[in-house]
Amino acid sequence: MKRAIDVLISCTALIVLSPILIVVGVLTLATSGRPVLFLQDRPGLGGRTFRLIKFRTMTPTASNEVDTETDGMRLTRLGRILRASSLDELPELWNVLRGDMSLVGPRPLLLEYLPLYTPEQARRHDIRPGITGWAQVNGRNAVDWEKRFELDAWYVDNRTMLLDMLILFKTIFQVIRINQTRSPGHQTQEKFRGSKP
User: Fold this and answer.
1) Counted domains in the chain
2) Is residue 195, in this structure, part of any structural domain at all?
3) 3 state DSSP class of 105
4) pTM strictly above 0.70
């Protein structure tokens, strides 16, 4: 049932939001050049790797790797707007349609974090990652890693269709408010370095 709803909503959203996708793509191309899209391998269901698709919000690096220490300096002016409004996430609807992701679930993080998880934290990969999730509507990047993983684990244990609908509605209101897109003291998101002993 969840997968059927994911396919229906993502397909509909891609069609309805196609004018916005085109405009954002053209603006990105005009202001930052190529590539328009940011592609990066992320761990999905069972820790299996998939290619995440987003609009590019930073000047590219040679290695195409995330460096949270320099992310703030590489954010473009348009990129800041896209991140604040979450418009950079719209291409992930294609990931949902493909089955890499779900609309709701733990956010897919970096592959380099996999060996740093505790067994409890690793349970976030028991389900498909999501465009939005319980952690995103309860603090997003404004809460620390430990709390985010705790919220992810809670969702894994308590997920229902009703909860998913609640998360989707709360996500809409959160996007409208445009906040909590950065970690305290960081322009984007603080790097996860493992749980505290």
Assistant:
1) 1
2) no
3) coil
4) yes
